[in-house]
């Protein structure tokens, strides 16, 4: 079964852009449009003006307080970014990024393509939630693209995929939310035992997150890791369990 692609806009400030993206979602038959803390009237007259006959996409879009919650039920996440600050990670062009995103693998049916704010894109903490980063090749003299234009380029790339990769014989991947919950438990444990310090925890956990995203542990493996972390947290607070218990 082909994955269902959801388009996620983080803190969009232009209702015309939101309406245009809603229309694109209808043009390319994507899954639901998701908005993270929009900074404008996302379903008002201006948005509907650009959505044209896709107003139902605006009515059906969901709003989320954070990007983490917006992609919690997705098995893979690609973030569109042209920021120089994120260049310590490889950026893929749309073709390879979409090929990876839409690959048929077991796990939650949804995958997500994430786009940032019109004025300054995605924060580093948000980019860390993505398994792959996508950059649209543009002229260096003027690399900034309009939000809806960037979405159009990426969605059009879906039509250019010759065929989706065949399903892999593998165990299911976890939902993004399960991986993040495991990382939060691990961070709490590592802070408690002194491996992490509050002022460096975010940076070091970011590296651990990227390690896990590259490795793509299976759903059962993530559950195993979370169980171990929780038991270690219990042991660090209460001491070694008595033998025979």
Looking at the overall shape, the CATH architecture of the largest domain is: 3-Layer(aba) Sandwich
Order of helices and strands: EHEHHEHEEHEHEHHHH
DSSP strand count: 7
SS-based class:
alpha/beta
| The CATH topology of the largest domain | Alpha/beta knot
Number of helices: 10
Largest sheet: 7 strands, parallel
Helical content (DSSP H or I, runs of 4+):
40-55%
Gyration radius, in Å: 20 Å
CATH class of the largest domain: Alpha Beta
Terminus-to-terminus distance: 45 Å
Task: Say which CATH homologous superfamily of the largest domain is assigned.
Answer: SPOUT methyltransferase, trefoil knot domain
Query: For the largest beta sheet, what order do the strands appear in spatially?
Result: 3-2-1-6-4-7-5
How would you describe what is shown here?
With 245 residues, the protein is α/β, with parallel strands linked by helices. The protein folds into two domains: 157 residues, SPOUT methyltransferase, trefoil knot domain (Alpha/beta knot), CATH 3.40.1280.10; 63 residues, Helicase, Ruva Protein, domain 3. 44% of the residues lie in helices and 13% in strands. The protein contains ten helices and seven strands. Helix 1 runs parallel beside helix 7, helix 5 packs across helix 7 and helix 8 runs parallel beside helix 10. It starts with a strand and ends in a 7-residue tail after the last helix. The mean pLDDT is 88.
